[in-house]
Amino acid sequence: MQPTASRPVPPAGAPAADTIVHDELELLAGLVPLARARLIELGCGAARLARALLARHAGTTLVGLEVDETQHAKNLAAAPQAGLSFARGGAQAIPFPDASFDGALMLKSLHHVPLAAMAQALDETARVLRPKGWLYVSEPVFAGELNELIRMFNDERDVRAAAQAALDTAIGGGRWEQAAEVRFSMPARFRDFAEFEQQVMRPSFADHRIDDAMLAAVRERFAPHLGPDGAAFMRPMHVRLLRTRGG
Description:
- The chain contains eight helices and eight strands; from the N terminus they run αβαβαββαβααβααββ.
- By secondary structure, the chain is α/β, with parallel strands linked by helices.
- It has a domain at 24-140 and 155-185 and 237-244: Vaccinia Virus protein VP39 (Rossmann fold, 3-Layer(aba) Sandwich), CATH 3.40.50.
- Helix 4 (118-128) crosses helix 6.
- Mean pLDDT is 92; it is low at 1-9.
């Protein structure tokens, strides 16, 4: 079967939908050149993958862009790393000149961009990429037990669907072409409910209005997953690799 413009077949060697990927950086490195590239991560969070990427690819540089003031302050206060820098801002208004980067990353962040700004965010990303620059978008699929836990206090069905629709529209607009599409599952582990509550229920960038009743209900559903080594889940993921046209 030949790939279509909007839904290419997975690249050779890509994992199947039921494959477990423990290290997404290995998947990324199999899709795009990372050595000595100039990259930007849009919505970098704590920049864990960015730090690992730079540790493996000497000479590469990466800017972590983060809109959340609290997380940005933590990033600036963390130990410095060669090639890594941070800036504050949203993907819909990237504070860099045209054609500044070879590639961009959005790791579980496109669906956090305000709905009305998703198209602008993809336009902005294309603007700051060099011709034939790439955008790696990794989004969680709205499925699985972890998803069911999260939707009890933060139902992301609509925003995740909107993120995929925004990518389709951007490709249809002619500024982007899709180079690859990959589905897989990633393990997600929490030491205990307290870690889940801190990381997922009470992030610094959102107020999910968790009251005592909601906290108790989520804790009850979480409990059967908890064992001596913590709670383990599988999170289905959907990666789409886009490239800017031209050049």
